[in-house]
Design brief:
Elements: H1 2-15, E1 23-27, H2 30-39, H3 42-45, E2 50-53, E3 62-68, H4 84-91, E4 94-101, H5 104-107, H6 111-120
Parallel strand pairs: 1-2, 1-3, 3-4
Helix pairs in contact: 1-2
Length: 121
Amino acid sequence: MEAALVRLHVKQLVEAGVRPEDIAVVTPYNAQRDQLAALASLKEKFPGIELGSVDGFQGREKEAVIVSLVRSNPDGEVGFLGEKRRLNVAMTRPKRSLTVIGDSETVKRCVLFAEFYWLMR
């Protein structure tokens, strides 16, 4: 489901005039990156779009960045998403547009994401 939301948002950005080469989809997990590439067919449908891991995207920027958080569980476990450095890299890559897609019930249990969630509401 998260991959479908990412694809829909990329489509909306492109329809609004953002060039695919100015869009990045960033996720903390390589497996999610691979799933987005395969299931959402992002690279085929939107040539030039960049898919990458948070760690691989460090030091770079794009006009629009979509962050796919992946984590969803009843215990609110966020794994290494709760690390300040990774959160900083993920949230500071866009020049103009940041979209965060994830399970708010899971991530808001993490102190760092709870603050972000509260600010964005």
